[in-house]
Amino acid sequence: MTRAAAPRAAAPRAAATSSPLARTVFWLVVAGLALPALLLTGSRIVDSDNGSMIRLVSFTPLGVVLWGLLVFLLSFRAAARTDRRPLRIGAVVVAGGALFLHLLWVGPQFAGANPPPAPGAEPITVMNSNLFEGHADAAQVAETVRREGVDVLVLEEITPDFLADLDAAGIADVLPNRAGGTDRFVAGTMVLSDLPLGEPVLLDTEFQSYRMSVGDLTLLAVHPTAPVLPDAWRADHAVIREDADRSHADLIVGDMNATPDHDVMRRLDGLGFRDAGELANEGQQPTWPANHLGVAPFLPPVIRIDHVLVADTLASLGTRTVEIEGTDHLALIAEVAPR
């Protein structure tokens, strides 16, 4: 007699899904990364006139980190789960596209062509320092000038007292020529140089900005207002941009209260005024906030608002930052040479 077949063992159930708590934590982390990432990408694309959105653009490079983490997390989730896989893969593609966009924006600061100087061209060392209403260490500024062999020093927020301290530190021994003016608060801007300086022309900006000749070069020493006043910020940058273009400036140096991602800086780039650090592929080189001072004392230097811009008459040989005690900006030093 034929024995009845034994009942088949039940097919193993699909692997248990993650717990509700794990799913909740995962999506909270994703949301916590996606919200600031979307804000950074959106603010960079829109170029808003809203002051908060303008300031948010300063942090655009952080989008690389945020979107990179999102691509990793969403890819891991898509690989681990088989349900709704097309939707999960779509989320990875969107995050990957945003990451690619941010890499395109930040990439020129790390890689790109850098035209060489003319054979035998004499290099010029340029230094910029915002003095935080004159609270910077004047002796350290003078020592940095000597150590780095600075030829042209541009100072923002220079006060009468700071200038007196700088003179007491012997700055005139190495940089005997000067132009510009001091102010008891934040508006003062001065240029000190071992090269001859021409008569300064005061530009119509909120704080003092000047055009002058430095040796055979035309320099704009500038300090546009911060984007807490968006209309004034844009107006100041328009004045600088138009004067630089009209005067065929060779150098634009100063605390520009804008990063390479701001549209005002991209417009200068479009006119041929390239950031010396970007040309030399120096990377981010943030300059603010420094020394845990100013309006954001909890942050290390994370954004680059101090710049040396060069026209196509000059080559960039490299840039570096130097910490100066007492100020919320790192000093920026650039070496340039005629092309």
From TrEMBL:
Keywords: Membrane, Transmembrane, Transmembrane helix
Start and end residues of each Endonuclease/exonuclease/phosphatase domain: 130-329
Molecular functions (GO terms): catalytic activity
Spans through the membrane: 21-41, 53-75, 87-107
Protein name, per record: Endonuclease/exonuclease/phosphatase domain-containing protein
Organism of this sequence: Nocardioides flavescens
